[in-house]
Amino acid sequence: MSAIDTLWEYLAVAVGILVILGGLTFGLLRGRAGRTKDLPAPPSGQPSTTSPTSQEANDSPTTAPSRAPVDTLPPPAESTEVTEETLPPPPSRPTVETPDAPAGRLQRLRARLARSNSALGKGLLALLSRGQLDEEAWEEVEDTLLAADLGVQATTELVDKLRTRVKIENTTDEASVRRWLHEDLLALVDPSMDRSVANSRIEGRPAVVLVVGVNGTGKTTTVGKLARVLVAEDKDVVLGAADTFRAAAADQLQTWGERVGVPTIRSDREGADPAAVAFDAVKAGAELEADVVVIDTAGRLHNKVGLMDELGKVKRVIEKQSPVDEVLLVLDATTGQNGLRQAEVFGQVVDVTGIVLTKLDGTAKGGIVVAVQRQLGVPVKLVGLGEGPDDLAPFDPEAFVSAILD
Ligand SMILES: Nc1nc2c(ncn2[C@@H]2O[C@H](COP(=O)(O)OP(=O)(O)OP(=O)(O)O)[C@@H](O)[C@H]2O)c(=O)[nH]1
């Protein structure tokens, strides 16, 4: 064999070896690429706790994967650079509510009044317009009025008037009876009484309103709702939480105030001197140049001498720096005659100037309006007709009588 033949033989062997090596390398690379698809890399920033072994590749259910499946993996973390878009939204400021306008509220809420009192109006109309009115029929009319808490005196007056009219006019026609009843009830409710609530500065100082009553009548709720009425009238209001007896009362009042952007002066100490809190509230009202300071007091039984003395003291302490312009007595309309006794005693201690009748939505005893005004000689100024924030209405005699009868 020549030297050239030997060279060719070497060359052929070398080419063969190269072809085999190339094939092996290609196969290895393919295998690696396939596995990479099956087992994704961990998301950036998350350290891998296990290496990608054949066990992971098997995806065996007995060996729970330490990484999430591909579909649920979070997208890779993006740039941490802070831009305006990535900034969290600013903390939301508490929104201040806009209460309903107080004018005409009773008209709007008349359905609530009518629902519970229409038995009175409809019952009376049915009785009076049924034709011949004998003694028995008049007695029924009387019973209906007494059941509505109108009181004996007002009932007798009303029945006497109606009997005279029926006799003179010689008719029981429904439209006429309705008209007479409307006129006579309205006269009893007395539209001539001043029902305005002190709500404006007087001689360069805020008006001061003190709210009193027995437990659970709705004082704190009324103060909160009254704040809304005043805010709707564009008044600057300061609330005083002088109910230091019931732990939650100050919180409750503060929440009412915050909803309409009104500050509440309170003590964080349970059982603090209510007179001191009331004094501080009036002082703050003067400093803030508020239009009106409304002070909530603790519920107290009218027959507990010590508690009534305390109320007298609250008023006297306030009066060391400002007159009290309005004392509102809150009465629960559902308590009937007992409410009248309360009114009498409170009137003796703190000179009540106005009545707030709450829970009139839940009773057919609307006659209490007349009875309490007569007993105390002070007007019903506000009525509560529900638990909603704007369910406190300035009392309007005409709307009240219409709601009962129409
Ligand atoms: N249906 C109805 N519920 C009312 C009305 N006014 C107040 N309430 C409810 O009466 C309950 C007592 O109200 P509060 O304001 O806590 O009574 P309070 O007189 O301050 O209570 P004390 O501080 O314990 O004397 C609450 O559940 C009120 O929502 C109203 O006009 N109608």
UniProtKB/TrEMBL annotation:
Positions with biased composition (Low complexity): 46-55
PROSITE patterns, per the entry: SRP54
Molecular function, one GO term: GTP binding
Annotated protein name in UniProt: Signal recognition particle receptor FtsY
Subunit structure: Part of the signal recognition particle protein translocation system, which is composed of SRP and FtsY.
Enzyme class: hydrolase
Superkingdom in the source lineage: Bacteria
GO BP terms in the entry: cell division; SRP-dependent cotranslational protein targeting to membrane
Binding site for GTP: 213-220, 296-300, 358-361
Function: Involved in targeting and insertion of nascent membrane proteins into the cytoplasmic membrane. Acts as a receptor for the complex formed by the signal recognition particle (SRP) and the ribosome-nascent chain (RNC).
SUPFAM superfamilies: Domain of the SRP/SRP receptor G-proteins, P-loop containing nucleoside triphosphate hydrolases
Listed InterPro entries: AAA+_ATPase (IPR003593), P-loop_NTPase (IPR027417), Signal_recog_particl_SRP54_hlx (IPR013822), SR_rcpt_FtsY (IPR004390), SRP/SRP_N (IPR036225), SRP54_GTPase_dom (IPR000897), SRP54_N_sf (IPR042101)
Gene3D superfamilies tied to this protein: P-loop containing nucleotide triphosphate hydrolases, Signal recognition particle SRP54, nucleotide-binding domain
